[in-house]
Amino acid sequence: MADAAPDMRAVRGALLTAGADGSPPVLAEGELAEVLCADGWVVVTLGGEAAAGATGGGAAPRIVERVAAGEGGAVERDPLMRVFRRLRPAFPDAAIEVRAGSRVYRGGAGFGERKHVLAVLGGKGGVGKSTVAVNLALTLTAMGLAVGLIDGDLNAPDVPHMLGASLTERPRRMRTFAISATAPSAWRRPLIRYGVELVSVRFEVPERLPPVISSRMLVSALLRGFIFQTAWAADVLLIDAPPGTGEELQVMAGELPLSGAIFVTTPQDLAQMDAERTLTLLRERGVPVLGMVQNMASLTCPHCSEAIDMYRLSPRLLQAGVPVLGRVPFDVQLSVTADEGRPLVLGDPRGPIAREFARIGGAVRRWLAERDRAESEEPA
Q: Most exposed: 108, 117, 243, 269, by fewest CB within 10 Å?
């Protein structure tokens, strides 16, 4: 079976018949709704259209009920993991995707084996989260990682402006994201800017017009589409998340394959109090937190070059077990270059802010490497 070409009959046989080691079939006939083999991918849908409407009326197939009944991400994806693990050795040269309702699994934490999705979030607005996300993406790219950036603040999509990406450069657009499986040839292509892949609703809406994205269903479809119906070359996706714990954050924490989250906050107590609410949401959903970036943490004295704390330092997040990844000093050039679409880590790669982002990027890269090592040691 390991040398079989990925065609529908071979995939169905791998799932509906006993394994070569005598293990029982992974699925019963009624639990396999659709198989798509295209462009080097094998996409299996469990439960078909009933899965997509599992929260509505009608009885969902048994496998979809098991997925929907789970409390945490790992439990929810367990049936998907079992199907994936049966298909992976059977089709080692194919990319595997397993779907059930709104859930999608491609291995690893969900986005793919040795691939990661990290949310960059702040809890409170105005803490410089988007600026940190953009400069961190560029730093990780400079370190040799293949990085993509998702502008997840759907009603205030500013990341393309910060990267100097104009609407004339936008990638081929699609009218909408499909709920069901689609062939990879139909996926949108991300824009590439400074080596970072980028998707944003800003490419679909003129800059001075407000996006109207109000329903949870639309938020969910957009964010899942950005991840699973985009032709990413990236191994690491950073999502620039909006402040608060609204619909976007609820969808990110509950429906997206997050490997982890990075907090961006200013050091004062008010900002960290709001961040604590977001931290509670992440822990309820089982999303690991890498640590926090304290932005605008200090100001360098122009006379003696000593660091001056700009805020009283709050211990809230530290006491909650969130380590400090780095402390980015206040520099007006950080916002000036963002407004001009020239991120500061590129304009001043040897300056103090770039050095601090290198420290932050090193911590993120080590965390990802540890996750990859732990996943490789898990039993098949």
A: 269
